[in-house]
Amino acid sequence: MQDAETTFPPLIDKAYVLTGATASGKSSLGLDWAERVGGEILSLDSIAVYRDMDIGTAKPTADQIARVPHHLINLVDPAEEFSVACYMRAAHQAVNEICSRGKVPIFVGGTPMFLKGILRGFDPGPPADWEFRKSVERDVQEHGVEALRERLRQVDPLAEHRINTNDVRRMIRALEVSRATGVPISHRQIQFEKQVSPDQCNVNALMWPRDQLHARINERVEAMFQAGLVGEVQSLLDRPGGMSRTARQAVGYREVIEHLDGTIDLDTAKEQVAAHTRRLARRQETWFRSFKEIRHIEMSEGCDPEQALQQLQQR
After folding, report:
1. Site feature Interaction with substrate tRNA: at which residues (predicted)?
2. Which residues sit in the known binding site for ATP?
3. Tell me, what's the pLDDT at 3?
4. The domain spanning residue 181 has which CATH number?
C-alpha cells in the first residue's frame, strides 16, 4: 500500500477516454473503438470494481471480454472499501502494462471522480476518519446542509464555493482533510486544476437529449430487475461480511436493500432506482461540462453509431 501522501499524475497523455451518462451507449461504442485502434478497455466505474456486482453495473459479458480485454473490474469483494486512490493506483499499473504490449488504453465509464483523476491527477490526502464523518452527518441531520456549508466556509471558503450546494459527501471530506492535515483541501488540490486543450488529448463524452436518455435509463432499469437484480443483492448480503458502505450506497443496490429490509415494496424500489439513476445522469452531465478537456459527441435515437465512431477515430 502506498503512502497516503503519494500523488498520482494524470493519464490522458497515455490513454483515450470515452465517457457519458448512465445508459448512454458508451460500453458498446467503446468496444467498437477498441477493435478499430488495437485498444484494451479500462473500466471507469466505481462499482464495477466489486466482484459479483454484475447486473446493477452492466458489466461486460464473457463475449465482450473475449472481443476486447477489459481491466479494472472485479478487483475486490463487496465487503471491502475501495477509494479513488485505490483506483488510481490500479489504473496506472494497468495503463503501463497495456502500453508495454503496444496496445492503446481506453478508459470507458462515467464515474466523475475517477474521470477527474484520469484527466487531472489525484491527491489522496489522509485516510477516511469514519467517526468524524458520522459525527458530521449527525450534525447535518440535526441542523441541515446550510449549517454544514457555513462550517466549511469558515475552514475553506474556496472549497465551499466550488462544491455543489447539496454535495454533503464532498463537503464532509473537505472538513476531514483540513482537520487531519491543517491544510485546506483547496490548497492541496491546486496542481490538479490544470487543464489541457481538447486538441491535446482524446477525451470524449456521449451527450443525449434529456428525454431520450431518460427513456434509455428506464429501459435499462426494467431490464436489470428482469435479469435478477433482487436475487443478486440478496446473495451479496448473505455473504460473510456483507457489503461495504460504498457498495451498499450504489444506485440500484441501495434501493433493493431497502426493499429486502421491508422498507419499500418492489414497485417503489423500481421507481426509485429509475429516479435516482436519472438524477445521477444529470450530475454526470454537469461534471462533463465542467471538464474543458472533453469533446462532446451528440447522440440521438436512430443515429448511425458509425458516425460517432468516426468522430472518435478522427481525434
Report:
1. 111, 133
2. 20-27
3. 42
4. 1.10.20.140
Domain count, the chain: 2
Task: Provide the pLDDT for residue 2.
Answer: 39
CA-to-CA distance for 178 and 186, rounded, in angstroms? 9
Examine the domain organization and report whether 269 and 303 are in the same domain: yes
**Integer Cα distance of 227 and 256 in angstroms:** 14
- Residue 191: the pLDDT is 57
**Residue 116: other Cβ atoms inside 10 A:** 18
How many Å is the Cα radius of gyration of the chain?
20
The pLDDT tens digits for 45-75 are 999 999 999 999 999 999 999 999 999 999 9
> CB under 8 Å to 96, separation ≥6 — which residues?
none
C-beta of residue 107 within 8 angstroms of C-beta of residue 15:
yes
Q: Which domain holds residue 157?
A: 130-188
- Please state, in angstroms and as integers, the Cα–Cα distance from residue 134 to each residue in 95, 172, 173, 182, 194, following that order: 36, 10, 12, 20, 33
Paired strand residues for 308: none
Judge contact between 104 and 38, C-beta under 8 A: yes
Q: What is the mean pLDDT of the chain?
A: 93
Q: How far apart are CA 206 and CA 19, in angstroms?
A: 6
Q: How far is CA 128 from CA 133, 156, 204, 300, in A?
A: 8, 18, 32, 41
Residue 297 DSSP code: E
Q: Which residues are annotated as a binding site?
A: 20-27
- Residue 207's identity, in one-letter code, is M
Q: Known binding site for substrate: residues? A: 22-27
User: Considering only CA atoms, which of 222, 310, 309, 277 is closest in space to residue 47?
Assistant: 277
Nearest CA to 32 out of 312, 220, 303, 315 is that of 312
Q: What is the pTM of this model?
A: 0.85
Same domain, 115 and 50: yes
